[in-house]
Amino acid sequence: MKLKPFELERYFAKYEFSVKYLLSSSDCDGLAAKDLLELADSETRKMWENLKLGYTESLGLPQLRQEIAKLYQGINEEDILIVAPEEGIFITMNTLLGEEDHIICTFPGYQSLYEIAESLGCEVTKWQPSEEDNWRLDPAFLESNIKSNTRLIIMNFPHNPTGSLASKEDYLRIVDIAKQNNIYLFSDEMYKFLELNPKDRLPSAVELYDKAITLFGMSKTFGMAGTRIGWVITKDKKLYSEMAAFKDYTTICSSAPSEILSLIALRAKDTIIQKHLKRINRNLGLLDDFFKKYSNLFSWVRPKAGTICFPKLLFDKSSFDFCEDVVKEAGIMVLPSTVYDYDDKHFRIGFGRENMPEALQEFESYVYKKLT
Question: GO terms for molecular function, please (predicted)?
């Protein structure tokens, strides 16, 4: 296996901790440890105070897996494997795929969702959305691109980087297509519970299909990327056993403090998520005003969920050059679509951070001075 550089992560590595403003982050504002510990119940407070920094259970802290199971219908702790989110993708792809396999993956997207498969020698078909149709991913594409060796369909809702969300009709059709063709279905659900309208929330793929694998975690929705805690879930016992064994070659086990902090957060999930959603809605209102004001320079499809959107440049400049100019002249990082290998006319904005209004104001100052 030889992996290509992870373009998005390499771009973040250049600027993430050196620029004044990040206007492209995909997570919610990071929780302060002090604030999180104040939400602990008596059991988790005791667990935290008596914590020993030794090895942890490879499958994950039992109480954490039990709490995660409560997020789903028909799932129990034996279906859940605690991983770092990126690790979950790596383990699943390496366990499930071989060089004769074909996969279909939503695109643009998080590079490891398709890059790992490519590095394993798989044939990859990229499933692209229609910007003109609110970034819709048409399930009919799947039906016309499934082959005899199609092993896996990979989907991501809410979608990174567009913020789109499949309709329930489309989503159920995707699951049905996988079922009818006896194909595994990997569902990246890292932005779950950040739907702007809760009525749009989709069921988890593992609630609908025994050959589904779901990925979720603490990074985006909970603002706890630093814990590096996520999970993969599947009802396929053979696959689960193989993934658990593969973890012996990656992290072996998770961080003991991170598991308890994640347990505290999950038990206080309503409080945490509502605070994040309030911030998201405030920030989206500011973006509504910005894109209305500068509609001659940018177009955008308003996201339905998550913390990111994918505007388009309407002037004659590449997105890479535009983003490089913004970061060098204004100290603001926005993310060019070239890191997704998609095109050179879009860029990603994140709106989950507390200082986003200040960052957007500085961005508008740059736009006004340089582009009007």
Answer: pyridoxal phosphate binding; transaminase activity
